[in-house]
Amino acid sequence: MPTEKAAPAADVKKKSKTPETLRGFRDVLADEQAAWEKIESLARGMTQAYGFGRIRMPVLEQTALFERSVGKDTDIVEKEMFTFVDQGGVKMTLRPEGTAQVARAYIEHGMVNQSQPVKLWYFEPFFRHERPQAGRYRQFYQWGIEAIGSDDPVVDAQIILMAQRFCRDLGLDVIVQINSLGTPASRKDYIAELVKYFKQHKKALSETDLKRLTKNPLRLLDSKEPGMEELKANAPQIFDYLDEASKQHFMKVLEYLDETEVPYALNPCLVRGLDYYTKTTFEIVLNNAPSPELEGLALGGGGRYDGLIPMLGGRENTSAMGAAMGVERMVLAMKAANAMPPRREKIDVFFCQLGEGARRKGLAVYEKFREGGIMVGEAFGKGTLKAQLEIADKLKAPVAVILGQKEVLDGTIIIRDMESGAQEIVDVEKVVGIIAKRLKDVAEKQA
Ligand code: ATP
Ligand code: MG
Q1: Contact 228/269 with Cβ under 8 angstroms?
Q2: 95 with 126: CB under 8 angstroms?
Q3: Pocket test for ligand 1, best of 170, 329, 332, 334 (most atoms within 8 A of CB)
Q4: In terms of DSSP bridges, do strands 423-427 and 399-403 run parallel, antiparallel, or are they unpaired?
Q5: How far apart are CA 161 and CA 262, in angstroms?
């Protein structure tokens, strides 16, 4: 990427005097916040339950980290990285993915000395210079989970289970697509067969696929070029080339998934774009994509990467397994499935004020409610009682408290039942306690 030249015209949306977001970058506005918060809090709860610790990592890394781990002949490294040289002459890259980073952190901080597997999670933005479209951005968030230091198939199953349950809990109907890539050694024989097969059909291959044939033949299996479906279906399947240990491992993973009733489908073409995968690979996809823009887009994916830690200079035989879920795509899917949570949390009380004195005093009373842990709605910017009560109605507040000039002078406040309209006057110093007790009574009655 050029550092001095101005951005090519295609990367700014249109010529405009007022600055706009760059192509492929976006603001997340109010209408999506409840969904984002739901996703993040679910991620927090689930990782806590499964014993994962959070990690926060820098957005910039040495370019070599991704070149060495993700692989030079992958889409990410070949054309999707935001790479530049800084003022000090250091070549750096805006991270395109999290697994290589977590592996780097594991080695750098000597986590090999902790009890294994070390389980880490992150919820952060990543950057890829892709052609933008719905569900594909140049900055996007991933929820990632990684378990480093175990080769037990139960870890594979647990990670897959977490990813699937996560989507289910968001109200999404998903299925796991799963495959095994075996070990690099067993894969070699398979790749040789694959190349032999596709060479016989060279004439049918597009230019892109011909390039894949020489540089990264496995990628032919996720080619979306026209006419490839049939060729792929008849291609040799990796399962027939797996070494015995990989086969056993895979069978065990499937058994665990059966046991926990995780819905899955074997997909012999699922190779995923990155070089570091070994054995299990999987993707989470929507069952009957609820909107055309989500057609063919995975919500997340992952797999085992037994070779990555040693490749980056960590201890030999450090096996690992992980997954990453795309947050924007989950939000899109929630929208399409009508599973968006309500915009605002339920409020307990709505606070109304009338007149300048009441507004001034009201700010302090409002704070007392908030400090008492009571969710209060307000419209300090509105003047009339009617306008404020209308908002209280809209927010479905069961109770309103009303502070007028007279109440300020008397040291009182009005409590109004929004359903019956019944009102009572109470001591303003006691109102928080009174409301808190009522809420507790209502909660106990409901329980
Ligand atoms: P795809 O095949 O859709 O390009 P990928 O295999 O490149 O995805 P991963 O690297 O496995 O994606 O990332 C995991 C998840 O992150 C994806 O399943 C997707 O939900 C999300 N993701 C990846 N790239 C983008 C992007 N450019 N914009 C939004 N989300 C993305
Ligand atoms: Mg991609």
Answers
A1: no
A2: yes
A3: 329
A4: unpaired
A5: 6
297 CA → ligand 2 middle, Å: 10
Highest mean pLDDT among 104-108, 219-223, 417-421: 104-108
Contacts of 353 (CB under 8 A, 6+ apart): 359, 361, 362, 380, 388, 402, 403, 404
Q: Could you tell me which CATH class the domain 9-183+243-336 is placed in?
A: alpha beta
Domain boundaries of the chain, sorted by first residue: 9-183+243-336, 349-446
Neighbours of 100 (CB within 10 A): 24
Q: Would you say 96 and 128 are in contact if contact means Cβ atoms under 8 Å apart?
A: yes
Of how many residues is the chain composed? 447
From the list 65, 132, 52, 131, the residue with the least C-alpha distance to 96 is 65
CATH topology of domain 349-446: Rossmann fold (3.40.50)
Q: What is the pLDDT of residues 102-161, one digit of tens each?
A: 999 999 999 999 999 999 999 999 999 999 998 999 999 999 999 999 999 999 999 999
pTM for this model (two decimals): 0.88
Question: Could you tell me if 312 and 16 are in contact, meaning their C-beta atoms sit under 8 angstroms apart?
Answer: no
Give whole-number Cα distances, 242 to 93, 139, 180, 197, 336, in Å: 35, 37, 8, 18, 39
75 three-state secondary structure: helix
26 SS3 class: coil
Return the residue whose CA atom lies nearest to atom 19 of ligand 1: 326
